[in-house]
Amino acid sequence: MDIARWVGLGIGAAVLYAVLREAKPDMAALLSLAAGAVLMLGVLGGVQEVLEAMRSLSSRVGLEGTYVSTLLRVIGIAYLAQFGAQACRDAGAGGIADKVELCGKVAVLSIAAPVVVSLMDVVTGVLV
Amino acid sequence: MNVDLLFQIAGIGILVSVIAQVLSRTGREDMAMLASVAGLVVVLLMVVNVVAQLLNNVKSIFQLY
């Protein structure tokens, strides 16, 4: 996972984006979307290793599996929502970007709700 | 890490903009519009593949069904 290649790719894409923006703004937006996708694809390998380490650590500690999988899905949703919102913002559609982020927040909340409920049960159990 | 995709997109973009300029200069605006739309469609197809690959990978890694 050499960082130099990714940084070089990002800078190259930024330069190409600047070149294309005058000639063809719509093509420039597509270029930034493609650059974002390529970079995030490159990062996915590293993310997978981190997740494997986290999963093995949590199983050794004896943490319950459902919480770890919930955490994983929340990270995935945040990962995708940020990518989509940034792509929309690059294309100049700030409003749509905010809506995409709103969808991401709602998705995270809908996944995290059962965990919060079970936390409340534990807390009330202890207090009673 | 398909880096060449970015350079292909940039190349197509510059080429199409040059072609559109030439066509519009010689008085054929409709052909210029068609050329730019065609270039856009080609680039869209290339980008869609990469984005679909990214979304599928993320869904499989994070178990987002």
Automatic annotation (TrEMBL), chain B:
**Any keyword Transmembrane?**
yes
Where is the chain membrane-spanning? 6-24, 31-55
One Pfam annotation reads SpoIIIAC
Give the matching InterPro entries.
Spore_III_AC, Spore_III_AC/AD
Name the source's superkingdom.
Answer: Bacteria
Keyword flag Acetylation: no
Please state what the protein is called: Stage III sporulation protein AC
Species this chain originates from:
Candidatus Onthenecus intestinigallinarum
